[in-house]
Recover the amino acids of this structure.
């Protein structure tokens, strides 16, 4: 086990053998967030804020499930492969179909072992001219090895990535479809970013020096090379492994450090919608995931909705061949998708009644 302090947080990298030591921040110690609470709260009894849910469309979990299955049908979405290229073209085509302005950010980056990965971040923009912008993100590539398999003979084969990769993208494609018609009503801008080369990090069986910096390569590239010069984001929500049956989403440490009010907002909305079973009001150690670099490099507060239990980790399917469509739950997709949709619509100021006629 490698210990490596990061800020004031306990950071567990996205593989158990890279647990990083430090201190878990509680809400009372968190740095001040850069975002406001919008217009979704009003004052209730004893001055306590009351969460008011603004009108929002329904999230279709069946459609999100279909989007995940479509990605899996292409095969392993590993950079430098035909399946990866075809899936990327499909994602762009879907965003275009729903009327989003798309950007394809091609780049090459070296993996932990020196392999050059021909990569592509895919961005869809709604209301591209709006100054206030909220980012919704997920990674779309899949793991080239199954390094969490117990049998060494099974570790070198890639994984299907239905949950780790496919689920976040599927939810975001369904959100893109759902809210496209409401662009004028929303008023602000939304950027869906599909980060590439997130899951090509150093496997545990590699005997070289530890490389915790070998993950999240697409997010690092975007953070340093925005798709629009001078891009500013209000806040962001990253979705990673958000489709498995029985998933629980704890409040992740990096999110609590950089964007505590966004965490509070999203988890409160999840509970108000009746999805409190999924959104657990308990903090966890921080995780090295795409949002870390959006916070640190780009300076945009971003949270991570990710399946991660503080004692049992990412689930027994994680980085194994069990990460397939058999573990995907429409109930989980609904809980996450509806919560994110509602969070967006709670940014819309409620109509103020005019004077009586």
């Amino acid at each position: 086990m490698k210990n490596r302090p990061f800020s004031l947080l306990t950071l567990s990298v996205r593989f158990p053998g890279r647990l990083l030591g430090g201190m878990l921040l509680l809400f009372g110690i968190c740095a001040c967030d850069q975002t406001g609470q919008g217009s979704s709260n009003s004052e209730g009894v004893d001055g306590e804020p009351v969460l008011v849910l603004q009108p929002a469309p329904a999230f279709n979990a069946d459609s999100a499930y279909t989007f995940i299955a479509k990605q899996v049908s292409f095969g392993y979405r590993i950079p430098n492969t035909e399946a990866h290229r075809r899936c990327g073209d499909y994602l762009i085509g879907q965003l275009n179909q729903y009327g989003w302005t798309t950007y394809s950010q091609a780049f090459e980056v070296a993996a932990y072992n020196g392999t050059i990965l021909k990569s592509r971040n895919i961005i869809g923009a709604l209301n591209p001219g709006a100054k206030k912008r909220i980012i919704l993100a997920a990674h779309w590539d899949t793991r080239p090895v199954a390094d969490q398999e117990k049998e060494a003979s099974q570790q070198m084969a890639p994984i299907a990535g239905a949950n780790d990769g496919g689920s976040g993208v599927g939810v975001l494609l369904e959100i893109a479809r759902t809210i496209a018609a409401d662009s004028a009503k929303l008023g602000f801008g939304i950027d869906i970013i599909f980060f590439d080369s997130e899951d090509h990090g150093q496997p545990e069986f590699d005997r070289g020096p530890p490389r915790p910096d070998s993950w999240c390569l697409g997010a690092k590239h975007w953070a340093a090379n925005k798709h629009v010069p001078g891009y500013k984001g209000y806040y962001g929500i990253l979705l990673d492994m958000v489709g498995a049956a029985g998933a629980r989403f704890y409040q992740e440490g990096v999110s609590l450090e950089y964007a505590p009010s966004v965490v509070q907002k999203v988890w409160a909305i999840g509970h108000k919608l009746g999805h409190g079973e999924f959104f657990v009001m308990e903090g966890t150690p921080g995780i090295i995931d795409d949002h870390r670099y959006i916070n640190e490099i780009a300076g945009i507060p971003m949270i991570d909705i990710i399946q991660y239990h503080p004692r049992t980790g990412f689930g027994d399917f994680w980085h194994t061949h069990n990460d397939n469509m058999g573990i995907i739950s429409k109930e989980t997709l609904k809980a996450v998708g509806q919560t994110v949709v509602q969070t967006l619509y709670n940014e819309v100021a409620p109509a103020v009644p005019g004077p009586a006629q």
Remarks:
- Residues 1-39 have pLDDT under 50 and may be disordered.
- The radius of gyration is 19 Å.
- Residues 162-179 form the longest helix (18 residues).
